[in-house]
């Protein structure tokens, strides 16, 4: 098939209609720039939804992939491989974790975390201690278990009966958790340090510290879903380090592979022991290709100048978007941390986040939404400052046209 036959219309003919992609089809990327089939250029502030943390076609990632591709692609979990061992050791060295389980997606990492929490409670406290507390507006994946735990009913609609034993408290409201948690029943509390899909809402530091204390008091495990906030996104390797609250289990994906599918569940040796031989698995999880790329991502992101650069770039982008918001009356605040920012629409523009995404595309800048009231930004951690400035100029042009219409 040639380019002429690979059109957006073909999507409707051959793909399951669970997505509604835009009309452009990107074909090439370099750094924080993308080009479509017609050669039109865009500045990418989407980052593949917080995935392409080192931009597109990063030479180091290409080199790691090519080198491993010439050695070994896949074995099975009947035996281990060097890249998986190396990456697991690196993750343990730079986090609270003592054990790592590899998977392919954030949903799989969360599925493993939730299964582990129940299994741990079953082994240590009995089968009645199986309830999970999550939060309203949270998002933890699209498997049947993770949509049940996620706090957005729209993702469960039509798929019931969903797995039970899940209660939802109010995010940033410790009292609502106290009403639900119990020593006899609760096995885990799962929380996003910054709710991503729910609107880029950061957790209050005292809220997370309170969750840690409640979990300790009730013999429950604390799970941090860092699928979106992890791997340098906040200016720390993981967001728990920013909050100085250590979970028992942490899930990571998205940026971990810089665009290559890989996920990880991190935990302590004591908790990990509950997933004995045969209790859980993943055919592709921990394959050599993915782990080789993930290793290069981590080795790059943990450099102090990279993490400091995230903070500086975040400040530049945040101030620029807030200035646009003030000039045109479209944003009431810009919240989040590092390279995960949410521009909250004013009352006048509520419900129209998608209009800003489309207006941006018309001017050659790619942004995201988080619900209908928030414009979300999740660009490369190393996006050049010149690209940030040009993206802001393009986006202001888009906002100017949108507000004048």
Automatic annotation (TrEMBL):
Main location: cytoplasm
Record-listed N6-(pyridoxal phosphate)lysine modification sites: 254
List of residues binding N(2)-acetyl-L-ornithine: 142, 282
Transmembrane is among the record's keywords: no
Pathway: Amino-acid biosynthesis; L-arginine biosynthesis; N(2)-acetyl-L-ornithine from L-glutamate: step 4/4
GO MF annotation, one: transaminase activity
SUPFAM superfamilies associated with the record: PLP-dependent transferases
EC number(s) stated in the UniProt entry for this protein: 2.6.1.11
UniProt keywords, alphabetically: Amino-acid biosynthesis, Aminotransferase, Arginine biosynthesis, Cytoplasm, Pyridoxal phosphate, Transferase
Binding, pyridoxal 5'-phosphate: 106-107, 139, 225-228, 283
Catalysed transformations (reactions): N(2)-acetyl-L-ornithine + 2-oxoglutarate = N-acetyl-L-glutamate 5-semialdehyde + L-glutamate
Names of required cofactors: pyridoxal 5'-phosphate
InterPro entries referenced in this protein's UniProt entry, alphabetically: Ac/SucOrn_transaminase_bac, AcOrn/SuccOrn_fam, Aminotrans_3, Aminotrans_3_PPA_site, Class-III_PLP-dep_AT, PyrdxlP-dep_Trfase, PyrdxlP-dep_Trfase_major, PyrdxlP-dep_Trfase_small
Cofactor binding note of this UniProt entry: Binds 1 pyridoxal phosphate per subunit.
Localization in the cell: Cytoplasm
Other noteworthy facts: May also have succinyldiaminopimelate aminotransferase activity, thus carrying out the corresponding step in lysine biosynthesis.
Family: Belongs to the class-III pyridoxal-phosphate-dependent aminotransferase family. ArgD subfamily.
Quaternary data: Homodimer.
The protein's name in its UniProt record: Acetylornithine aminotransferase
Naturally occurring in which organism (per UniProt): Marinobacter salinisoli
Gene responsible for this protein: argD
């Amino acid at each position: 098939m040639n380019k002429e036959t690979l059109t957006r219309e073909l999507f409707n003919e051959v793909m399951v209609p669970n997505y509604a992609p835009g009309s452009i089809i990107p074909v090439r990327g370099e750094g924080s720039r993308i080009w479509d089939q017609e050669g039109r250029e865009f500045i990418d502030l989407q980052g593949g939804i917080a995935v392409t943390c080192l931009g597109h076609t990063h030479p180091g990632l290409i080199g790691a992939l090519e080198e491993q591709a010439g050695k070994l692609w896949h074995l099975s979990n009947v035996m281990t491989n060097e890249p998986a061992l190396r990456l697991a050791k690196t993750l343990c060295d730079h986090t609270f974790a003592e054990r790592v389980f590899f998977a392919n997606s954030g949903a799989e990492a969360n599925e493993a975390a939730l299964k582990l929490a129940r299994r741990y409670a079953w082994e240590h406290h009995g089968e009645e201690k199986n309830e999970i507390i999550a939060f309203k507006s949270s998002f933890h994946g699209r498997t049947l278990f993770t949509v049940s735990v996620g706090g957005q009913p729209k993702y469960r609609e039509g798929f019931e009966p969903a797995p039970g034993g899940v209660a939802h408290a109010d995010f940033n409201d410790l009292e609502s958790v106290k009403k639900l948690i119990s020593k006899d029943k609760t096995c885990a509390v799962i929380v996003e340090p910054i709710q991503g899909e729910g609107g880029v809402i950061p957790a209050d530091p005292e809220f997370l510290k309170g969750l840690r204390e409640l979990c300790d008091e009730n013999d429950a495990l604390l799970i941090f879903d860092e699928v979106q906030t992890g791997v340098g996104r906040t200016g720390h390797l993981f967001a728990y380090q920013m909050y100085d609250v250590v979970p028992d289990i942490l899930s990571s994906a998205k940026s971990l592979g810089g665009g290559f599918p890989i996920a990880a569940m991190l935990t302590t040796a004591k908790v990990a022991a509950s997933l004995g031989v045969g209790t859980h698995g993943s055919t592709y999880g921990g394959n050599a290709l993915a782990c080789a790329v993930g290793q290069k991502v981590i080795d790059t992101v943990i450099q102090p100048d990279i993490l400091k650069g995230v903070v500086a770039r975040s400040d530049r982008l945040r101030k620029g978007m807030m200035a646009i918001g003030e000039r045109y009356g479209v944003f009431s605040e810009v919240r989040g941390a590092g390279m995960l920012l949410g521009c909250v629409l004013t009352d006048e523009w509520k419900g129209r986040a998608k209009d800003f995404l489309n207006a941006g595309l018309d001017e050659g800048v790619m942004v995201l939404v988080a619900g209908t009231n928030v414009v979300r930004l999740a660009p490369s951690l190393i996006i050049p400052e010149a690209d940030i400035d040009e993206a802001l100029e393009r986006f202001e042009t888009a906002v100017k046209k949108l507000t004048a219409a």
